[in-house]
Amino acid sequence: MASTQSFWPVSHRDDDFWVCMACLTEVFYRKVPMPDCPSCHGVSTYEGFTLEAIRDWGTDDLIAKAIAAQDAAVVARPAAEAAAPVEAAD
């Protein structure tokens, strides 16, 4: 039986991407997995970066993961906003 990954949301700030510094192969957009990194199982090993910073030092795979994570969040955000109830103004 496969379990789903849970995440802690990270408040919006300049560093939208969170990279696992233990393995340097996982990146998450505005969230970090709990209880640990899905690849290396490191705990509390995340550092915040901008996409430009990741492009400066990251591998091609890490950069692609960052872009994919950001794109997935952008697609999910409008769907979540559309599902939220809207109250009519008087």
Structure write-up:
The chain has one domain. Helix content is 34%, strand content 21%. The chain is built from two helices and five strands. The strands form two sheets. The chain has a three-stranded antiparallel β-sheet with strand order 3-2-5. The chain has a two-stranded antiparallel sheet with strand order 1-4.
Output the keywords.
90 residues; globular; 2 helices; 3-stranded antiparallel beta sheet; alpha+beta; single chain
Largest sheet: 3 strands, antiparallel
Briefly note the structural class of the backbone: alpha+beta
Topology, number of strands? 5
Q: What number is the mean pLDDT?
A: 82
Span from first to last CA? 50 Å
Outline of the structure:
With 90 residues, the chain is of the alpha+beta class.
Write the layout of secondary structure elements.
Layout (H helix, E strand, L loop, with lengths): L5 E4 L7 E4 L6 E3 L1 E4 L11 E4 L1 H7 L2 H24 L7
Antiparallel strand pairs: 1-4, 2-3, 2-5
